Amino acid sequence: MIETERNKRKTDRAWNTLYQRLDEEGLLSGGPASPFRGLAWRGGAAAAIALLCLLVSVAYLSRPGQDADPNLLTRQNSETATALVTTLEDGSVVYLAGNASLMYPEHFSSDRREVSLQGNALFDIAGNRKRPFVIETEDTRIEVLGTAFNVKSNGSSPFELSVQRGEVKVTLKKNGQDIHVKAGETVTLLSRRLQLSTTPDPALFDRYTERIRFKDEKLGNILRVINLQNPDIRLETTPELWDRTLTVTFSNDTPEAMAELICLALDLKKTRQDNTILLFN
């Protein structure tokens, strides 16, 4: 999913920064680790063959008076300056903005992938024409086959959806109006009608990836998201380490620095060959 431009840091400076951060988080002293760790992140995202990108703005999690489904999981980002990144069962990636919540099943059904969102989020959906991805909002239903998009649902502004890559179908529940939104386009709910326009600020997608946080996320998923954002250098790990979990924040660092910090946090080693960095025990 993104374009990137990197500035390499000197090795000594990177190590000093990493050790300082680990010390602050209690990882070197044996103290309690903070749920946030600083790591490098670059502002663009590289498109993956199976994934597309779109941006939507929605206000919905559960209707007033409706009991929460005990079979659904909820991810909530209590931070305001960091996007919380979650990888769903099908490989789709969701970047939750501050104070946003996502409700989703642990296992999707065989024919549909359905979630509910409250707040703003960037979705990067794994393509699967046989299993449409559906986002339910208070006013609309959003159906995607494979795309990346931003969703806003803070309740203080009207519904809005902007598509970065791919195409989505938005249906207004009250009157059945539907509209197809393509890359570079934005749909807004105004005067009870969906209105299409050119996306005024394409940079809005990049804001979700400037500072991101993973909470108890599998290492394999973390590396996958890093690679989507940084196509020139790949971070990989051995199969037995894929399910190791980590809580970490990436902010304005290089892939090399990310690899260093992950290794120090999980007591791993690394080796580099050409443009691939391998993390191992």
How is the topology of this model organized?
Elements lengths: L10 H15 L25 E9 L12 E5 L6 E5 L5 E4 L4 E5 L7 E14 L6 E4 L3 E5 L3 E4 L8 E6 L1 E6 L5 E5 L2 E6 L2 E6 L12 E8 H11 L4 E4 L7 E7 L3 H12 L2 E5 L2 E5 L1
Parallel strand pairs: 3-15, 6-7, 16-19
Antiparallel strand pairs: 1-6, 1-10, 2-5, 3-4, 4-6, 5-6, 6-9, 7-8, 8-11, 9-10, 10-13, 11-12, 13-14, 15-17, 18-19
Describe the structure.
The structure is a single chain. The chain is mainly beta and 281 residues long. The chain has three helices and 19 strands. It has helices at 11-25, 219-229, 255-266; strands at residues 51-59, 72-76, 83-87, 93-96, 101-105, 113-126, 133-136, 140-144, 148-151, 160-165, 167-172, 178-182, 185-190, 193-198, 211-218, 234-237, 245-251, 269-273, 276-280. It has a 16-stranded mixed β-sheet that branches. α1 crosses α3. 42% of the residues are buried.
